[in-house]
Amino acid sequence: MAKKEYIFNPTTLAYEPVRRPARLRRYIIARRGILLFIVAAVVNLVYSFEFYTPKMHAIESDRSDILGQYDVLSERISSMGTTIGEIAQRDNFVYRPLFGADTLSLMGIYSPFSESFYNGFEEDWQQVARHTWQQLDQQTRLLYRQSISLDQLQSLSKNKEKMAASIPAIWPINKKDLRGPIGAYGRRLHPIYKRYIHHKGIDFGGRRGDPIYATGNGVVSHTEKGLRRRGYGQQIVIDHGFGYKTRYAHLNERLVKKGQEVKRGELIGYMGNTGGSTGPHLHYEVIYMGRDVDPINYFRRDMSEAEFERIISEAKVTTFETLDNNESSVNE
Ligand SMILES: [Zn+2]
Predict the structure, then answer these.
(1) Ligand 1 center to residue 101 CA distance, Å?
(2) Which of 24, 104, 146, 277 could form a disulfide with 250 if both were Cys (CB 3.0 to 4.6 A apart)?
(3) Domains of the chain
């Protein structure tokens, strides 16, 4: 309470308390109230900057709970990613090769969204949420890829019978017709030319006129007479579908025409010595997805394990062909 004010009364010759009008008194009380409120507000503001209020303590504790939960979520997404990775691994190395399908690659599937996609997660404490979202998006992409792969395998499995009949799987000549060892596939030092040469197929030595057979069902995609002393000479190329083609070169005679359907084991021509050839033989190629592969792996069906091992160990660098043979060839 403020001190009372006194005023000298000349009539009574005494000091008497000042009587203020009621309105003024109310004003003074109201002013004190407002001042008190402002002071309290300022104190509260300063206090809340320096110290946590109970409400803020509660918020802070909720926040660290949420961050903890995000950590758990993030770990679970990671372990989900590991599982997807294992499935993809099996898919790539077990299931897809069963159907002769290459590793699936989808353009752009692995590129993450741009950083701006995650706008709204700029605050420091939101980084954990942003990371979780990015992880989830990544796993979603991989799952999508996996489901596409399974779709492909499903349709391939429907075609499995057709595929089994089409993929080259037998010898292109009668085994009894083979003269001498097989001319090996691959990069070898040529004994006569003393140069490393990549041999795109394997060579079967035989006699002019030995029958040549289609090694799988397909359509003749190319046939030509070729040059007399260079290259493949008379040749036939069969497209088997599913990424496979076979080539039969240096023939003496061709019995099929372009566009003609052929069955596995069907007679398509006769062995010869045309093109860059030094003696009657068949140059046989298996081409998968545009690349030559070792044909030795495509007639196991015709051979026992022991026979297969023997042929592989006896295969020699071919001397059946002149140096230009593979260089002058047209790749199908
Ligand atoms: Zn050859």
Answers:
(1) 27
(2) 277
(3) 54-158 (no CATH), 175-327 (2.70.70.10)
